Amino acid sequence: MNEFVTPQDGYDLIGDVHGCGATLATLLETLGYHLIDGVYRHPTRKVIFLGDIIDRGPRIRLAVQLASRMVDAGEALIVMGNHEYNALAYCRRARQHKGEEHRDFLRPHTSRHNRIIRETLEQYQHHPDEWDEALRWFMRMPLCLDLPPLAPGKSGLRVVHACWDESLVRAFLERYPDGRIDEDFLHDSIDSNSFAWRVLERLTRGASLRLPEGIEIHSGDGFTRRSFRTHFWAREPRTYGDVVFQPDNLPGELESRWLSDDELSNLPYYGPEQPPLFLGHYWCEGLPALPAPNIACLDYSAVKFGRLVAYRFSGEATLDAENFVWVPVPREPSRRPLPEELPVDALASRGPSHDEPAE
Ligand SMILES: [Mn+2]
């Protein structure tokens, strides 16, 4: 394992890969990275992955291999996504405490949870050691990064999978200065009254609001939701519509519904004077755009035939949509761009195919 050395020119931030391993290799090549000794490298830049490398896509093992080798070689950093956290909790046996309800795993194996991790477990089915190694790698992923400027006059940057909640981040980093959780933290996180739960929920899943009694959203991913995802960069939000941030529209009149004082007090806020912040998690669609001058979300639904998106950051305090770089994932397999440097047998390593093989 090589030590991470800060890059000369800047960081290329890459959004949620979700098992689109071939598309990831293509994006890295598009960004000028070359495969050297089995690792994609750039002479003057480094990658930061925004988490959610696994689940859903057809080449999850390839995606994990590409990303973890870059991190181990000191060519990339990564933050944990909610899918990596889910996988850890799904695979970790619960500790039994007297008087508590019996629980086999930290994350119960319900049909919904089974479905979310299904492709990952299937593709690793005949590679149990590799899966154990992947889980150990997930444990080493920090939840957030707060990186200093690369040179005088440049801006630093912050990275988190879903939500930068300043007070929670500070409280967490005080106890876990390298941003990494440990076994006790993972086990504590199943209790929704614990600090660990609040940190993991907010940083990797973001803030959300419960819908009023009797109202549900039928989401594009086939799930029924009783809450909606909110963003955290509206200066003085008044209505649900001011903070909603997910592809599903709010039903009916809810867009104009007033936020209660309780709801407002629970919403974090990231102001325009803060350093640039990079997020994944929220499925965006269409051409990449900046939700705020200092915030970029890089999840453009690659695994749903969208785009795998990067942002080339070179220390600018005000972000510029010109710095987005992406690889499209067309529905038709023959039109999907393929990497040139990756050996063909690496591309053949896909698991059993599923309903939506996105690459
Ligand atoms: Mn996510």
From TrEMBL:
Protein's name according to its UniProt entry: Serine/threonine protein phosphatase
Family matches, as Gene3D superfamilies: 3.60.21.10
Residue ranges occupied by any Calcineurin-like phosphoesterase domain in the UniProt entry: 13-111
Entries under Pfam families matching the protein: Metallophos
Transmembrane residue ranges: none
GO terms for MF: phosphatase activity
Region (Disordered): 331-359
A cellular-component GO term for this protein: cytoplasm
High-level lineage: Bacteria, Pseudomonadati, Pseudomonadota, Gammaproteobacteria, Oceanospirillales
